[in-house]
Amino acid sequence: MKMETLMTNNFEKENPGLIDALAEITSWNSFAASLVEQYNKRKTLSEKQTFAAVAMLAKIKQKQADRKSNMISLDVSNIMIVLNKSDESVKTPKIRVGDFVFSKPHPNSVNAGALYIKHHGEYIGKVTGGYYLPVGNVAEDTVTEIKEICKDPLESAVAYGRRTGNCAVCNRDLTRHDSIDRGIGPICAERLGLL
Q1: Residue boundaries of the structural domains of the chain
Q2: Are 71 and 132 in contact (CB under 8 A)?
Q3: Exposed, middle or buried: residue 74 (CB in 10 Å: 0-12, 13-18, 19+)?
Q4: Helix (H) or strand (E) holding 165
Q5: In whole angstroms, what is the distance from residue 93 CA to residue 189 CA?
Q6: Overall pTM surpassing 0.85 (yes/no)
Q7: Residue whose C-alpha is closest to residue 179's, from 157, 151, 149
Q8: Among candidates 63, 102, 62, which has minimal Cα distance to 79?
Q9: From the first residue on, what is the mean pLDDT of each consecutive set of 10 residues in the chain (195 residues)?
């Protein structure tokens, strides 16, 4: 048996699945990519490299578990219906409801198909695959408010526009009576396919 094969077999016995786990994350983790590259050349990793790889994978696994435990089921289909009606020239359509802004990522984004949420101008997470993934400590009453808006986003946006006198999309002052009644200015309403 060749020495190289013996080293590979020993490393794999002592660290089952480690290289496969590292290989799965090489597209976004340069450290994992460098370890896989070194393993492919030498058929082993040093003790320090192995320890660092195991620790990194454990940390990633814990973050994923924490993120899953924070996931909140959220139906944003009504918001997406409104945003999907928007004119093709609008690359990142958005709708504003009170202190919230709901927007679609750029079509070429890695998050295409998701929905971004900002509150008071701060990014507080995204909704993807029917789940809201909060960023930071999002208050429970904020999540409740988001759920309420999701039931009828257009009506919530219109109510916001009527109450404040500002367009529910771009936040500019509404000056015409028909715009105030609609809660959305004519240009934004046309871009959202509401006119």
Answers
A1: 3-68, 73-191
A2: yes
A3: buried
A4: none
A5: 12
A6: no
A7: 157
A8: 102
A9: 52 88 91 93 91 92 75 86 74 81 86 91 90 86 90 83 85 87 84 70
